């Protein structure tokens, strides 16, 4: 019997791409250096997310921005622009339009959890008070997904057995393969409809979060 539905945050519940783009736009405009373009800030950030996958999300962002600023000898300005980035990023961090209705419907029958690798704090992304528990990787000894320990922390927070928890996310490697390896039920939010890139199959695949209540009901049996 399913008792708990736990969610990834970025690109699952939270429209992080729009928020990050707004933050980098603000920094680029304020820095006002023709050599430090939005495209450069974005490319350096993408590279650092690949180079530093085990680091805290804020630390990755800081390292990437320092690297970009250093291209013009302005790395000493990091704190100023990092603060601006996060101010604007959080001001634009909002759930996808369908999220409130989906959470309202699921909360009638299940405990809801919020469990993320990144730093999209629920109460700063328009989702405060929605969840029975919140879990952030690299806090309180919790490793990052897809580590088994992350999902064990989800189970502990939910006070549930693996087959009682559905984990919902957009990343095949982190949210499907990682959760399945720990025994959780999985729903893959695969908006593109692309085939699974590996042998692990989600319990259910959906292309729109609005399909989630029916998917969980299907697993609940």
UniProtKB/TrEMBL annotation:
Keywords: Hydrolase, Magnesium. One of its GO terms (biological process) is small molecule metabolic process. Its cofactor is Mg(2+). It holds the Pfam family Hydrolase. GO terms for molecular function: hydrolase activity. SUPFAM superfamilies: HAD-like. PANTHER family: N-ACYLNEURAMINATE-9-PHOSPHATASE. This is Haloacid dehalogenase.
């Amino acid at each position: 019997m399913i008792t708990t539905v736990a969610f990834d945050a970025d690109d699952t519940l939270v429209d992080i791409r729009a928020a990050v783009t707004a933050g980098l736009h603000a920094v680029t405009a304020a820095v006002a250096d023709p050599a430090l373009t939005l495209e450069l800030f974005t490319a350096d950030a993408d590279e650092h997310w690949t180079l530093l996958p085990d680091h805290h999300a804020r630390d990755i962002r800081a390292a990437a921005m320092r690297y970009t600023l250093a291209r013009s000898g302005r790395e000493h300005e990091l704190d100023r622009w990092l603060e601006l980035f996060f101010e604007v990023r959080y001001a634009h961090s909002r759930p996808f339009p369908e999220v409130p209705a989906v959470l309202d419907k699921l909360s009638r029958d299940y405990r809801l959890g919020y469990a993320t690798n990144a730093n999209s704090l629920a109460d700063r992304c328009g989702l405060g008070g929605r969840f029975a528990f919140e879990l952030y990787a690299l806090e309180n000894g919790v490793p990052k997904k897809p580590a088994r320990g992350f999902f064990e922390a989800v189970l502990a927070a939910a006070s549930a057995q693996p087959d009682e928890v559905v984990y919902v996310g957009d990343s095949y490697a982190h949210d499907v393969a990682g959760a399945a390896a720990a025994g959780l039920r999985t729903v893959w939010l695969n908006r593109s409809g692309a085939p699974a890139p590996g042998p692990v199959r989600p319990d259910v695949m959906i292309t729109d979060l609005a399909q989630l209540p029916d998917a969980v009901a299907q697993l609940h049996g």
